[in-house]
Specification:
By secondary structure, the protein is α+β, with helices and mostly antiparallel strands. The protein is built from 8 helices and 13 strands. The longest helix has 32 residues. It starts with 15 loop residues before the first helix and ends with a helix. Bound molecules: dinuclear copper ion.
Protein backbone atom coordinates (compact mmCIF):
# COMPACT_ATOMS: atom_id res chain seq x y z
CA UNK A 1 0.00 0.00 0.00
CA UNK A 2 2.73 2.44 1.08
CA UNK A 3 6.03 1.00 -0.06
CA UNK A 4 8.79 1.64 2.47
CA UNK A 5 6.30 2.64 5.13
CA UNK A 6 6.46 0.77 8.42
CA UNK A 7 4.14 1.21 11.34
CA UNK A 8 6.84 0.19 13.81
CA UNK A 9 10.63 0.04 13.55
CA UNK A 10 12.25 -3.27 12.73
CA UNK A 11 12.41 -5.81 15.57
CA UNK A 12 16.12 -6.27 16.15
CA UNK A 13 16.46 -7.35 19.79
CA UNK A 14 15.29 -10.25 21.91
CA UNK A 15 12.91 -7.95 23.76
CA UNK A 16 11.44 -6.18 20.72
CA UNK A 17 8.83 -8.85 19.83
CA UNK A 18 7.76 -9.08 23.46
CA UNK A 19 7.25 -5.33 23.74
CA UNK A 20 5.35 -5.33 20.44
CA UNK A 21 3.11 -8.27 21.38
CA UNK A 22 2.07 -6.50 24.56
CA UNK A 23 1.55 -3.27 22.64
CA UNK A 24 -0.62 -4.99 20.02
CA UNK A 25 -2.65 -6.72 22.72
CA UNK A 26 -3.42 -3.38 24.41
CA UNK A 27 -4.28 -1.79 21.05
CA UNK A 28 -6.53 -4.75 20.17
CA UNK A 29 -8.40 -4.60 23.49
CA UNK A 30 -8.83 -0.84 23.15
CA UNK A 31 -9.96 -1.12 19.53
CA UNK A 32 -12.42 -3.91 20.37
CA UNK A 33 -14.21 -1.83 23.00
CA UNK A 34 -14.06 1.36 20.93
CA UNK A 35 -15.71 -0.45 18.02
CA UNK A 36 -18.22 -2.26 20.27
CA UNK A 37 -19.35 1.00 21.92
CA UNK A 38 -19.55 2.88 18.61
CA UNK A 39 -21.55 0.12 16.94
CA UNK A 40 -23.90 -0.13 19.94
CA UNK A 41 -24.50 3.65 19.89
CA UNK A 42 -25.34 3.60 16.19
CA UNK A 43 -27.50 0.42 16.34
CA UNK A 44 -29.52 1.66 19.32
CA UNK A 45 -29.90 5.15 17.86
CA UNK A 46 -31.39 3.62 14.71
CA UNK A 47 -33.43 0.92 16.44
CA UNK A 48 -35.09 3.16 19.06
CA UNK A 49 -35.50 6.29 16.99
CA UNK A 50 -38.88 8.03 17.17
CA UNK A 51 -40.51 10.94 15.41
CA UNK A 52 -42.67 11.78 18.43
CA UNK A 53 -41.21 14.96 20.03
CA UNK A 54 -43.01 14.28 23.33
CA UNK A 55 -41.81 10.67 23.78
CA UNK A 56 -40.29 9.88 27.20
CA UNK A 57 -37.80 7.03 27.69
CA UNK A 58 -38.57 4.11 29.98
CA UNK A 59 -37.31 4.42 33.56
CA UNK A 60 -34.59 1.84 34.31
CA UNK A 61 -33.45 1.02 37.85
CA UNK A 62 -30.14 -0.69 37.23
CA UNK A 63 -29.18 -4.32 36.82
CA UNK A 64 -26.93 -6.13 39.27
CA UNK A 65 -25.64 -8.73 36.75
CA UNK A 66 -24.87 -6.05 34.19
CA UNK A 67 -23.04 -3.85 36.67
CA UNK A 68 -21.03 -6.79 37.99
CA UNK A 69 -20.11 -7.73 34.43
CA UNK A 70 -18.86 -4.29 33.44
CA UNK A 71 -16.85 -4.07 36.66
CA UNK A 72 -15.34 -7.55 36.73
CA UNK A 73 -14.48 -7.94 33.04
CA UNK A 74 -12.43 -4.69 32.79
CA UNK A 75 -10.82 -5.54 36.14
CA UNK A 76 -9.63 -8.91 34.84
CA UNK A 77 -8.41 -7.38 31.57
CA UNK A 78 -6.48 -4.70 33.51
CA UNK A 79 -4.86 -7.36 35.67
CA UNK A 80 -3.80 -9.33 32.59
CA UNK A 81 -2.18 -6.16 31.18
CA UNK A 82 -0.56 -5.44 34.54
CA UNK A 83 0.94 -8.92 34.92
CA UNK A 84 2.09 -9.11 31.32
CA UNK A 85 3.58 -5.58 31.37
CA UNK A 86 5.36 -6.25 34.68
CA UNK A 87 6.94 -9.36 33.21
CA UNK A 88 8.25 -7.41 30.20
CA UNK A 89 9.25 -4.45 32.37
CA UNK A 90 11.36 -6.54 34.76
CA UNK A 91 13.18 -8.14 31.85
CA UNK A 92 13.82 -4.69 30.36
CA UNK A 93 15.14 -3.44 33.70
CA UNK A 94 17.28 -6.42 34.70
CA UNK A 95 20.19 -7.22 32.44
CA UNK A 96 21.35 -10.85 32.34
CA UNK A 97 24.38 -11.81 34.41
CA UNK A 98 26.98 -11.70 31.66
CA UNK A 99 26.84 -8.51 29.66
CA UNK A 100 29.20 -6.64 27.42
CA UNK A 101 29.71 -3.35 29.25
CA UNK A 102 29.76 -0.06 27.39
CA UNK A 103 29.83 3.42 28.89
CA UNK A 104 28.39 6.52 27.31
CA UNK A 105 27.99 10.21 27.94
CA UNK A 106 25.38 12.46 26.43
CA UNK A 107 26.04 16.11 25.85
CA UNK A 108 24.63 18.79 23.65
CA UNK A 109 24.43 17.46 21.02
CA UNK A 110 26.16 14.15 20.71
CA UNK A 111 26.50 10.67 22.13
CA UNK A 112 29.94 9.54 23.14
CA UNK A 113 30.48 5.81 23.64
CA UNK A 114 33.37 4.26 25.49
CA UNK A 115 34.19 0.57 25.09
CA UNK A 116 36.05 -0.95 28.00
CA UNK A 117 38.84 -2.11 25.72
CA UNK A 118 39.59 1.54 25.05
CA UNK A 119 37.75 2.47 21.87
CA UNK A 120 35.78 5.69 21.66
CA UNK A 121 32.99 6.43 19.27
CA UNK A 122 30.79 9.45 18.70
CA UNK A 123 27.21 9.01 17.48
CA UNK A 124 28.01 5.44 16.50
CA UNK A 125 27.96 2.28 18.52
CA UNK A 126 29.32 -1.04 17.32
CA UNK A 127 28.01 -4.16 19.06
CA UNK A 128 28.12 -7.88 18.35
CA UNK A 129 24.97 -9.75 17.42
CA UNK A 130 23.54 -12.32 19.85
CA UNK A 131 25.27 -10.94 22.93
CA UNK A 132 23.70 -9.04 25.81
CA UNK A 133 25.02 -5.48 25.91
CA UNK A 134 24.61 -3.08 28.80
CA UNK A 135 25.15 0.63 28.24
CA UNK A 136 25.77 2.69 31.39
CA UNK A 137 25.52 6.41 30.78
CA UNK A 138 25.08 9.89 32.18
CA UNK A 139 24.73 13.40 30.85
CA UNK A 140 27.27 16.22 31.04
CA UNK A 141 24.73 19.00 30.79
CA UNK A 142 20.95 18.65 30.49
CA UNK A 143 18.44 15.81 30.29
CA UNK A 144 18.74 13.62 27.22
CA UNK A 145 17.22 10.24 26.51
CA UNK A 146 18.95 7.30 24.89
CA UNK A 147 16.53 5.56 22.56
CA UNK A 148 17.17 2.53 20.35
CA UNK A 149 13.83 2.10 18.57
CA UNK A 150 14.76 -1.21 16.89
CA UNK A 151 15.65 -2.65 20.31
CA UNK A 152 12.62 -1.07 22.06
CA UNK A 153 14.76 0.33 24.87
CA UNK A 154 14.96 3.89 26.12
CA UNK A 155 16.21 5.62 29.26
CA UNK A 156 16.86 9.19 30.31
CA UNK A 157 20.42 10.47 30.56
CA UNK A 158 20.40 12.45 33.79
CA UNK A 159 23.19 14.82 34.87
CA UNK A 160 24.83 13.57 38.05
CA UNK A 161 23.48 10.06 37.85
CA UNK A 162 24.03 6.82 35.96
CA UNK A 163 21.27 5.24 33.91
CA UNK A 164 21.49 2.06 31.91
CA UNK A 165 19.80 0.16 29.14
CA UNK A 166 20.48 -3.37 27.99
CA UNK A 167 19.66 -5.23 24.81
CA UNK A 168 20.63 -8.30 22.87
CA UNK A 169 20.62 -7.63 19.15
CA UNK A 170 19.23 -10.42 17.00
CA UNK A 171 19.93 -9.12 13.51
CA UNK A 172 22.98 -7.77 11.78
CA UNK A 173 22.45 -4.28 10.43
CA UNK A 174 22.42 -0.59 11.21
CA UNK A 175 19.72 0.92 13.36
CA UNK A 176 18.79 4.35 14.61
CA UNK A 177 19.91 5.92 17.84
CA UNK A 178 17.86 8.92 18.88
CA UNK A 179 17.82 11.47 21.65
CA UNK A 180 14.25 11.24 22.83
CA UNK A 181 14.16 14.19 25.22
CA UNK A 182 14.10 17.79 23.98
CA UNK A 183 17.49 19.20 24.90
CA UNK A 184 17.83 22.45 22.97
CA UNK A 185 18.53 23.79 19.50
CA UNK A 186 20.09 20.74 17.89
CA UNK A 187 18.06 18.10 19.73
CA UNK A 188 16.80 16.83 16.37
CA UNK A 189 20.40 16.45 15.20
CA UNK A 190 21.42 14.39 18.23
CA UNK A 191 21.11 11.16 16.34
CA UNK A 192 23.39 8.30 15.57
CA UNK A 193 23.40 4.69 14.61
CA UNK A 194 24.11 1.37 16.21
CA UNK A 195 25.96 -1.10 14.03
CA UNK A 196 25.24 -4.74 14.84
CA UNK A 197 28.03 -6.99 13.59
CA UNK A 198 29.02 -10.65 13.46
CA UNK A 199 31.06 -11.42 16.62
CA UNK A 200 34.18 -12.02 14.53
CA UNK A 201 33.73 -8.73 12.67
CA UNK A 202 33.17 -7.03 16.02
CA UNK A 203 36.42 -8.46 17.40
CA UNK A 204 38.23 -7.23 14.30
CA UNK A 205 36.65 -3.82 14.69
CA UNK A 206 37.60 -3.74 18.40
CA UNK A 207 41.25 -4.50 17.72
CA UNK A 208 41.18 -1.65 15.22
CA UNK A 209 41.17 1.65 17.04
CA UNK A 210 42.09 1.16 20.69
CA UNK A 211 43.88 4.21 22.02
CA UNK A 212 45.53 4.52 25.40
CA UNK A 213 44.81 0.98 26.58
CA UNK A 214 41.65 -0.39 28.14
CA UNK A 215 39.27 1.72 30.15
CA UNK A 216 40.30 -0.08 33.35
CA UNK A 217 43.98 0.57 32.56
CA UNK A 218 43.22 4.25 32.19
CA UNK A 219 41.31 4.05 35.46
CA UNK A 220 44.29 2.49 37.20
CA UNK A 221 46.55 5.21 35.85
CA UNK A 222 44.17 7.86 37.22
CA UNK A 223 43.90 5.96 40.51
CA UNK A 224 47.66 6.35 40.90
CA UNK A 225 47.93 9.86 39.42
CA UNK A 226 45.23 11.20 41.75
CA UNK A 227 46.88 9.39 44.69
CA UNK A 228 43.75 7.37 45.45
CA UNK A 229 46.12 4.45 45.98
CA UNK A 230 47.77 6.14 48.99
CA UNK A 231 44.58 5.81 51.07
CA UNK A 232 42.65 2.97 49.48
CA UNK A 233 45.20 0.28 50.28
CA UNK A 234 44.27 -3.21 49.20
CA UNK A 235 45.01 -4.68 52.65
CA UNK A 236 42.28 -2.52 54.24
CA UNK A 237 44.76 -0.71 56.56
CA UNK A 238 44.64 2.58 54.68
CA UNK A 239 42.85 5.76 55.63
CA UNK A 240 40.17 4.83 53.14
CA UNK A 241 38.43 1.47 52.77
CA UNK A 242 39.97 -1.17 50.56
CA UNK A 243 38.25 -1.40 47.21
CA UNK A 244 39.26 -5.00 46.53
CA UNK A 245 36.36 -7.42 46.10
CA UNK A 246 33.84 -4.75 46.97
CA UNK A 247 32.01 -4.19 43.70
CA UNK A 248 28.48 -5.57 43.87
CA UNK A 249 28.74 -6.19 47.62
CA UNK A 250 26.78 -4.35 50.34
CA UNK A 251 28.53 -1.44 52.07
CA UNK A 252 27.81 -0.52 55.70
CA UNK A 253 27.59 3.27 56.00
CA UNK A 254 28.42 5.42 59.01
CA UNK A 255 24.79 6.55 59.25
CA UNK A 256 23.72 2.95 59.80
CA UNK A 257 22.24 2.30 56.38
CA UNK A 258 23.53 -0.15 53.80
CA UNK A 259 24.03 0.51 50.11
CA UNK A 260 25.15 -1.72 47.28
CA UNK A 261 28.51 -0.92 45.76
CA UNK A 262 27.39 -0.28 42.18
CA UNK A 263 28.41 2.14 39.42
CA UNK A 264 26.32 4.95 40.88
CA UNK A 265 27.73 4.56 44.39
CA UNK A 266 31.33 4.57 43.15
CA UNK A 267 30.65 7.66 41.04
CA UNK A 268 28.93 9.43 43.94
CA UNK A 269 31.78 8.53 46.30
CA UNK A 270 34.34 10.05 43.95
CA UNK A 271 32.41 13.28 43.42
CA UNK A 272 30.76 13.72 46.85
CA UNK A 273 32.73 11.47 49.20
CA UNK A 274 31.17 12.81 52.43
CA UNK A 275 27.63 12.00 51.38
CA UNK A 276 27.66 8.25 52.08
CA UNK A 277 30.63 7.59 54.29
CA UNK A 278 31.70 4.00 54.88
CA UNK A 279 31.32 3.01 58.55
CA UNK A 280 34.56 3.19 60.53
CA UNK A 281 36.29 5.77 58.34
CA UNK A 282 36.92 9.48 58.81
CA UNK A 283 35.56 12.02 56.29
CA UNK A 284 39.05 12.71 54.92
CA UNK A 285 38.58 12.20 51.22
CA UNK A 286 38.60 15.36 49.09
CA UNK A 287 35.90 15.83 46.51
CA UNK A 288 36.77 15.39 42.85
CA UNK A 289 33.75 17.31 41.69
CA UNK A 290 34.72 19.49 38.74
CA UNK A 291 38.17 17.91 38.53
CA UNK A 292 37.28 14.83 36.53
CA UNK A 293 35.50 14.45 33.22
CA UNK A 294 32.68 11.94 33.05
CA UNK A 295 34.96 9.74 30.93
CA UNK A 296 37.57 9.75 33.69
CA UNK A 297 34.96 8.91 36.31
CA UNK A 298 33.84 5.99 34.13
CA UNK A 299 37.45 4.81 33.82
CA UNK A 300 37.79 4.84 37.63
CA UNK A 301 34.48 3.00 38.04
CA UNK A 302 35.58 0.38 35.55
CA UNK A 303 38.92 0.00 37.37
CA UNK A 304 37.16 -0.53 40.71
CA UNK A 305 35.01 -3.19 39.03
CA UNK A 306 38.08 -5.14 38.00
CA UNK A 307 39.50 -5.23 41.54
CA UNK A 308 38.20 -8.59 42.54
CA UNK A 309 41.18 -10.33 44.11
CA UNK A 310 43.98 -9.14 46.41
CA UNK A 311 46.62 -7.51 44.28
CA UNK A 312 44.28 -7.70 41.32
CA UNK A 313 44.37 -4.96 38.82
CA UNK A 314 44.08 -4.49 35.15
CA UNK A 315 45.59 -7.89 34.45
CA UNK A 316 42.35 -9.59 35.47
CA UNK A 317 40.48 -7.86 32.65
CA UNK A 318 41.89 -10.21 30.06
CA UNK A 319 41.10 -13.23 32.23
CA UNK A 320 37.43 -12.30 32.04
CA UNK A 321 37.50 -12.31 28.26
CA UNK A 322 37.65 -9.35 25.96
CA UNK A 323 35.24 -6.64 26.90
CA UNK A 324 33.61 -8.76 29.54
CA UNK A 325 33.02 -7.62 33.08
CA UNK A 326 31.88 -10.44 35.31
CA UNK A 327 28.63 -9.67 37.11
CA UNK A 328 28.81 -8.79 40.80
CA UNK A 329 27.42 -12.20 41.73
CA UNK A 330 30.16 -13.99 39.82
CA UNK A 331 32.76 -11.77 41.45
CA UNK A 332 31.60 -12.66 44.91
CA UNK A 333 31.87 -16.35 44.11
CA UNK A 334 35.52 -16.19 43.20
CU1 LIG B 1 19.77 15.34 23.57
CU2 LIG B 1 17.56 15.77 22.84
Amino acid sequence: MFPGFQLLPEQASTLAPRVDNLYFFIVAVTAFFAVAVTVAVIVFAVKYRTDDPLAVGASIHGSIPLELAWSIIPFVISLVIFAWASDVFFDLQRPPNQTLEIYATAKRWMWKFQHIDGQNEINELHVPVGRAVKVTFTSEDVLHSMFFPAFRVKADAIPGRYSSVWFQATKIGEYHLFCAEYCGTSHSGMIGKVVVMEPSAYQAWLSGGAVGGSLAARGEQLFNDLACNTCHLSDGKGRGPSLVNTFGAPVQLSNGSVVTMNESYVRESILTPQLKLVAGYQPLMPTFQGLLTEENVMALVEYVKTLHAPGAGVSTVSAAGPGETPPPAAQENR
